[in-house]
Specification:
heterodimer, A: mainly alpha, ABC transporter involved in vitamin B12 uptake, BtuC, 16 helices, B: 290 residues, mainly alpha, globular
């Protein structure tokens, strides 16, 4: 709550577009990453193709507005639904075939690539040229004079996704999901319908990530196949939760803040060097997996526990430590 | 219907390409069959090898076919080192982690190449690049014929290594029963690294065979790897014979669908085939083990 209040105040403190742009990118990756986190972090199904949902949301919003004159807010909703639908379809196909682990990662990657190729040749997506959303700075058209309203809307979306995941954590569905992650066969043996649970998680996960895509289209007013369905978004979607703390509510937000800060620092330090920020992301990813598999959240947790056990070194605590 | 004068060259060209695909797939399937991880860094390593072959020619004037003699052991060592000192220790023996570590390596290698060499596409000029041999009605480019022969020879060598050498036997033992192999005194971490090294060495050879007739940019390897994934899944993860046959098959399918459907749709054809095989025959058409 406190964190959200502080974040909400950002546009009031600064009018700098650079700062707001940065904050928007952090929140966007946090949102997209939260989608991945639900399926990958809680459900243990590592998708390498979340771009499929991001891109579908983005294209649905843009195409509905530009080709069919649909209201932008309605388009936003439809975009999320379209992303969810694609998620459900890919999920149904792959889970029904029993794809797990590496196979699931591969098939999601392949679906995202197929969509990217289709989007880069199909006339409806503007093919190689991409799709522009016409500038129309009215709130009814989901466009604003300043960046602040965009920021608040995105913050609202991130807040909603945090609450949603927090709620899922607490209900039976969330417990089943974690059970499937820990041991799918055992969960099945205990009567959990793993197929339905995974499918549900994938659908919600896709919807959250699609919301990020819809927002992207509305904020930048331009998308093409490489942006919408490109591998960059699939990679950032999984980087954020893994670095921040996989399977934790705040992991994606924390991770997004870290990778975007790293990206900016790299850019400042080296000028505009293409690729170098991604080299650093890659290194951070490998280092986190090697030395802090539970991400920043895990490190903080360990430190807090250590600090607490030092501060309250009662005999009972010591006994516990020894046992 | 297209007449035989077009069909036969298309099939032959498909076979030529397919042999190189098979070589790339061979490395992938070997690593999967033994380590049970999908090496997402395979494409980036292939690109790195292509750059190495390119610069061996630019800087030292080495013919790619001669450069292969140096690059193959070099990439074996690179692969060995990566698995032994990075992927193995970093993933703590968890499949999910090794998936992410190889993805991380792919991101690092690809973007380091992008940073160093920019997105420019480079080619090398060789005197024999445009020579052709005539087989019936088909004219085949010499580099492709060489690539075909070499790829088949490498696959055969690899098969012989796996069947007859002690290391090959150890690799097969680890692939079948890791714990049992460890109990008989096989050092699993070493065998894992050797396997990864062999897989990477295949890429160095593939790169040297490709570079005379292909281009290189920081993204070049990826095109091959998605095809290689298709082949590996098609041929059965971990099957050497499957990779070889799958490679030739995919080469022909690609060539024919390019002929009938045009280039961009031909590309989709491969992905669709990939997804269909993953969904309906995830163990592949020849699902045997290494």
């Amino acid at each position: 709550m406190v964190a959200m209040a502080v974040l909400a105040a950002v546009p009031l403190i600064t009018a700098s577009n650079v700062v707001l742009n940065f904050a928007v990118m952090v929140l966007l990756i946090a949102l997209v990453g939260q989608g991945w986190n639900l399926l990958g972090g809680y459900g243990g199904q590592y998708s390498f193709g979340h771009a499929a949902f991001f891109g579908t949301g983005a294209y649905a919003t843009a195409i509905l507005q530009m080709r069919y004159g649909v209201n932008a807010w309605l388009g936003f909703g439809v975009g999320i639904a379209a992303g969810a639908l694609v998620g459900a379809a890919i999920g149904a196909l792959s889970f029904r075939s029993g794809l797990r682990g590496s196979y699931f990662a591969l098939v999601t990657l392949a679906f995202a690539e197929v969509l990217r190729i289709i989007a880069s040749v199909a006339p409806i997506t503007g093919a190689g040229v991409g799709t522009l959303i016409k500038l129309d700075l009215r709130p009814e058209a989901f466009q604003f004079q300043s960046r602040a309203p965009f920021y608040w809307i995105l913050l609202g979306l991130v807040g909603a996704s945090l609450i949603l995941v927090r709620v899922i954590e607490g209900i039976r569905f969330g417990a089943y999901l974690v059970a499937v992650r820990e041991n799918e066969d055992a969960a099945k043996a205990l009567g959990v319908d793993a197929m339905i649970i995974k499918l549900g998680a994938m659908t919600i996960s896709a919807a959250i990530t699609a919301a990020g895509g819809c927002f992207y289209a509305q904020y930048f007013l331009f998308i093409d196949a490489g942006i919408a369905y490109g591998p960059w978004i699939s990679v950032e979607a999984l980087l954020a939760p893994i670095i921040g703390g996989i399977g934790t509510v705040f992991g994606p937000l924390l991770g997004a803040l870290v990778i975007k800060t790293l990206g900016e620092v790299t850019k400042l330090a080296t000028g505009d060097a293409p690729g170098l920020d991604l080299v650093i992301y890659g290194c951070v990813l490998v280092l986190v997996i090697a030395f802090a598999p539970r991400g920043i959240a895990g490190v903080v947790d360990d430190l807090r526990r250590r600090f607490r056990s030092n501060a309250t070194a009662t005999p009972a605590a010591l006994d516990h430590g020894r046992g | 219907m297209v007449s035989a004068t077009i069909l036969v060259p298309a099939v032959l060209n498909g076979l030529m390409n397919g042999a190189v695909y098979a070589l790339v797939a061979l490395g992938l399937t070997l690593i999967y069959g033994v380590l049970h991880i999908i090496n997402f860094a395979h494409g980036a390593l292939l690109t790195a090898a292509m750059f190495a072959a390119f610069f061996a020619h630019q800087l030292f004037g080495l013919d790619p076919y001669i450069a292969a003699l140096f690059l193959t052991p070099l990439f074996f060592l690179l692969g060995y080192g990566l698995q032994r000192f990075v992927i193995g220790p970093a993933s703590h023996g968890e499949d999910r982690n090794s998936l992410l570590v190889t993805l991380g390596l792919a991101v690092i290698i690809e973007n380091a190449l992008l940073y160093a060499f920019r997105a420019d596409t480079r080619t090398i000029n060789l005197p024999y690049a445009f020579d052709v041999v005539e087989i019936g009605t088909a004219f085949l480019a010499v580099p492709r014929v060489v690539a075909f022969g070499a790829a088949i020879a490498v696959a055969l060598c690899l098969w012989l290594i796996m069947q007859w050498t002690d290391t090959g036997k150890a690799i097969r033992a680890v692939a079948k029963e890791k714990l049992g192999a460890e109990l008989t005194g096989i050092e699993v971490a070493h065998i894992y690294a050797v396997t990864f090294g062999l897989g990477t060495a295949c890429l160095a050879i593939a790169a040297c065979l490709l570079i005379p007739s292909y281009y290189v940019n920081p993204d070049a390897g990826n095109a091959f790897v998605l095809i290689a994934f298709t082949i590996v899944v098609l041929g059965g993860m971990g099957s050497v014979v499957g990779a070889l046959l799958g490679g030739l098959f995919v080469g022909v399918v690609e060539s024919l669908s390019g002929l009938y459907l045009g280039e961009s749709l031909g590309q989709i054809g491969i992905f669709v085939m990939f997804i269909l095989v993953l969904l309906f025959r995830p163990n592949g058409l020849f699902g045997e083990r290494v």
